[in-house]
Design goal:
Structural class: alpha+beta
Order of helices and strands: EEEEHEEHHHHHHHHHHHHHHH
Number of strands: 6
Helix content: 40-55%
Largest sheet: 4 strands, mixed
Number of helices: 16
Strand content: 5-15%
CATH architecture of one domain: Orthogonal Bundle
């Protein structure tokens, strides 16, 4: 290092070129070695971080960052190397291959043209199947000209189902029985006696941590068991249709030995929260009648049952108002007759 006045000249230890620096700024010079008084200039540092490689297509050397692995010097050479491969054998892959060759574009440019990624196009050109979403994009671009082809998504689904089918032993086999016996042997503790169970239940009831007796009784009844079945159905199908709900109700009613209306009445409130409104008649009660004697609604229903027309019933209510006997309006007649028709429909 040569000192000229207040500035010091340090030379690059690679190319020999030097620069003048103040002694106070030497500590900020990158790759400076005080022992030898040398450093690496910017050009040499840049050259150290790059590597030289020869392109196998054009036979020209090119420079690239040392931390990345490069084979071809440009996208054109990379696409040309793909052209040297043999065309795909399947109709679908050969169709994409021919369209790409006819376009005269690079793989990246043609992938952008047809609306897929570069790696997707390389996968197809390498005679491999695309995913279902990529096949749909190609179908959207080419239309009916694109040949039909299975997708890699279907292959993965078949592979997963085949693996899952053989994952666990089948019921009735010796392996299934061995697994069941092994699971029973791993259960810890001893079986509790009836007296021990009764003491536990009594202690929970004393702490008010046990379900009330009426709740236990309801869960064991037909409506309670129907609700348990509905919870299991909704676990598999969270948003069923009305037709599906009625099929479930029929299967549940056959299993419980109850009428279908009993199951639907138990499910009505839960299904209504999911947007399914079931038209189910209410449960019959002892001494219940739709018509209350000596009431306005009962009188209107009785007149309607006697073949009176709507206008005649309205006129009768107006005459009663004039006599002070308590008549009715046309709106009240329409509401009462509408309710009567709906109830007749539910009962039929």
């Amino acid at each position: 290092m040569a000192v000229l006045g207040r500035a010091a000249r340090i030379a690059c230890r690679n190319c020999g070129r030097g620069r003048h620096y103040k002694p106070s700024t030497l500590r900020r010079v990158k790759s400076y070695e005080p022992a030898t008084g040398t450093y690496l200039c910017r050009a040499c540092r840049h050259q150290r971080r790059r590597s030289e490689t020869t392109c196998p297509v054009c036979r020209q050397p090119f420079s690239h960052p040392a931390r990345t692995r490069r084979i071809y010097c440009s996208m054109a050479c990379r696409s040309t190397s793909t052209l040297r491969l043999r065309p795909p054998a399947s109709n679908f892959n050969a169709f994409i291959w021919q369209r790409w060759v006819q376009s005269g574009q690079t793989i990246r440019a043609y992938a952008m043209t047809i609306g897929v990624g570069e790696n997707v196009l390389r996968t197809v050109l390498a005679n491999r199947l695309p995913m279902r979403r990529n096949y749909d994009r190609l179908r959207q671009h080419f239309g009916d000209e694109l040949p039909a082809s299975p997708t890699d998504t279907d292959r993965r689904i078949r592979q997963a189902r085949a693996a899952y089918a053989n994952l666990y032993p089948k019921p009735g086999t010796a392996a299934f029985a061995a697994n069941r016996d092994k699971a029973g042997e791993t259960m810890r503790g001893r079986p509790k006696t009836r007296d021990h169970i009764d003491k536990m239940v009594a202690a929970r009831q004393a702490r008010e941590s046990y379900p009330p007796a009426d709740l236990v009784e309801f869960s064991r009844s037909a409506p309670g068991r129907a609700i348990h079945s509905l919870v299991a159905y909704l676990h598999r199908t969270p948003q069923p249709t009305e037709a599906q709900a009625r099929e479930w109700a029929k299967a549940c009613a056959d299993r419980l030995g109850e009428p279908v209306e009993t199951v639907l009445r138990a499910w009505k409130r839960t299904l209504r929260r999911r947007g399914i409104v079931l038209r189910v008649p209410p449960a019959p009660k002892q001494g219940r009648a739709w018509t209350v004697p000596d009431s306005k609604a009962g009188t209107i229903r009785q007149l309607y049952g006697d073949r009176w027309t709507r206008q005649q019933i309205i006129e009768e209510g107006r005459q009663r108002d004039l006599r002070g006997a308590g008549g009715w309006s046309a709106n009240y007649v329409d509401q009462t007759l509408s309710k009567a028709r709906r109830r007749d429909t539910l009962q039929s």
